[in-house]
Amino acid sequence: MDQKEKKDEGRLSIGLTEDVAKGVYSNMALITHSPTEIVLDFVAVLPGMPKPPVCSRVIMAPQHAKRLLFALQDNIAKYEKMFGKIEINEGRTYMPPISEFHGDA
User: Fold this and answer.
1) Does any domain span residue 4?
2) What is the rounded CA–CA span in Å between residue 18 and residue 2?
């Protein structure tokens, strides 16, 4: 085994199908949990859709959710360093606050 094979031995190779590569648009996420899973439901809330469907659901262990949290924090910090601070205008949204949302997901 040469040096390159040894270096690549522990590396994970991930495949990406064409359908998944297209992605899914979402502008809202609903998060629920049980003692053993965190469930993220991604929704696209658009004008004229009285009951927008969940377009994607991701279920993960709490440990993986925490790793995702850290990875998002790291990537947002890198993004803001490169492109500037991400502003969130809480008062300028058409989506109801999560406490007023009653979905069937």
Assistant:
1) no
2) 33
**Integer Cα distance of 105 and 67 in angstroms:** 24
- What letter represents residue 21's amino acid? A
- Residues 67 and 14: their CA atoms lie apart, in Å, by 18
Give the pLDDT confidence score for residue 90 in this predicted structure: 73
The Cα–Cα gap between 103 and 22 comes to: 26
> What pTM value is reported for the model?
0.70
* Statement: residue 97 has pLDDT above 60: no
Give alpha helix (H) positions in the chain. 3-9, 18-21, 62-83
User: For 84, how many CA atoms within 13 A lie in the half-sphere containing its CB?
Assistant: 2
Q: How many domains would you assign to the chain?
A: 1
